[in-house]
Amino acid sequence: MIIKETNTNMMNPEVPIYHNLQPLFQFFESFQNLSSSSKDRIASICTSVQIPKNKDLQAIGHTCRTIYFVKKGLCRIYYYKDGVDITEAFAFENSLIARVESLFTGRPSKKGIQTLEDSVFIGIASPALFDLYDQFPEIERLFRKIFEAAYVETVNRIENIQFHTAEERYNDLIKNSPDLLQRVPLKHIASYLGITQVSLSRIRAKY
Amino acid sequence: MIIKETNTNMMNPEVPIYHNLQPLFQFFESFQNLSSSSKDRIASICTSVQIPKNKDLQAIGHTCRTIYFVKKGLCRIYYYKDGVDITEAFAFENSLIARVESLFTGRPSKKGIQTLEDSVFIGIASPALFDLYDQFPEIERLFRKIFEAAYVETVNRIENIQFHTAEERYNDLIKNSPDLLQRVPLKHIASYLGITQVSLSRIRAKY
DNA sequence: GGAATCCTTTTACATATGTTAAAAAAGACC
DNA sequence: GGTCTTTTTTAACATATGTAAAAGGATTCC
Question: What is the structure's pLDDT at B18?
Answer without folding.
Answer: 55
